[in-house]
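Regression report. Comparing outputs from two consecutive submissions.

Submission 1:
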Amino acid sequence: MSEDALDRLARRRAGMKMGWAIHATAYVLVNLLLAGLSAQQGRHWAIYPAMGWGLGLLLHGAVVWLNLPGGGLHARLLARERRLLQRQQGRG
């Protein structure tokens, strides 16, 4: 892999990780605020947005951490599809 390609891949991976970290930070801060408001009202409604957003954060994390090249799910699927396409090209 060329230096330029390595640099692009490194930037992409770092950007994905940073995006998830920002998402997680926003999740924690907003849900702390909502929990405080919920507690002030004497109700416990803040659990519902925390659970819904938490699922989104979990899915975002799965995409980021499983998508990273080098043994990740995305890399394996990509390699499989390339092999299938190469076989089809050879037959056609």
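Submission 2:
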Amino acid sequence: MTTRGGGLGGRDLLLVLLICLAWAGNFLTSALALREIPPFLFTALRFGILGLALIPLMKPPAQGQWPRLFAVAICLGLLHFGLSFTALKLAGDLSSPAIVMQSYVPMTALLGWVMLGERFGWRTGLAIAVSFGGVLVLGFDPIVLDHPASLISMLISAVFLALATVLMKPLKGLDVFSQQGWIAWISVLPLLAISEVIEPGAIARLTNVSWVGWVGAAYAAFISSLLGHGLFYVLVKRHPIAQVTPWLLISPVLAVVLGIVFWGDRPGPRLLVGGAMVLGGVLIIALRALAKSREVVREPTEI
């Protein structure tokens, strides 16, 4: 097996930019939709639309994979997305949720160490500490202090995203569309049940939702999930994942820009410094993973 060692170029960098634009735009369109649709119902709509779209592409998982797939769906579809949209609704800005979300990367490294025995060096450990320190600094920004529930919700959401990422690693025989489709279908009914309990009457009020709310749900399903993750799958089939992930840090930066231009965000010095620490730590972790992947010498095989 051979892999490309020259990094991303030309057309693939354009695909990275499209992915980052899709994911950054999701913060803005979802925040607008969440003015009309409460978070867990919005998440259910996103997955309902996505699940219907993916039916023709879905394949069943391999025997024995169902329990792990259900665990991934609960962590990712139900808890991560439900809580992240809750955080976005509670936040007074787009910038802090977009940055705090990236804390899932150092959390994933820690969980990989605890659950899978994956080891990392002192530089990665230092980067993890810097990232978490950045969250603390960011948390003292006035706009974040005014909405502490948003910060807590997003951090818990990031924990479940990290857990889902670790649980996903041993899944075999599922392409990205099958994986997304099953996660969507497993998540929809529990999300609707939670919405009925903690967002009473929200389902009945869907008839009053404007085109902004429906476009937000459709964007989350088709542009963020289907297009964004679909293109990501294309890239990781061409390149080692460690070569792709550092470029994805463009996404939260673009989300901050969108927040300033369209949402009226005015990031203070603590948010900027804390954000730089979080993203800087994440970048170091990604670059360390890239360096490690390049140390692995793969011999070409003949078939």
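Expected: both submissions complete independently.
Actual: both completed, but the second showed a warning that disappeared on reload.
Relevant detail on submission 2: Residues 1-5, 297-303 have pLDDT under 50 and may be disordered.
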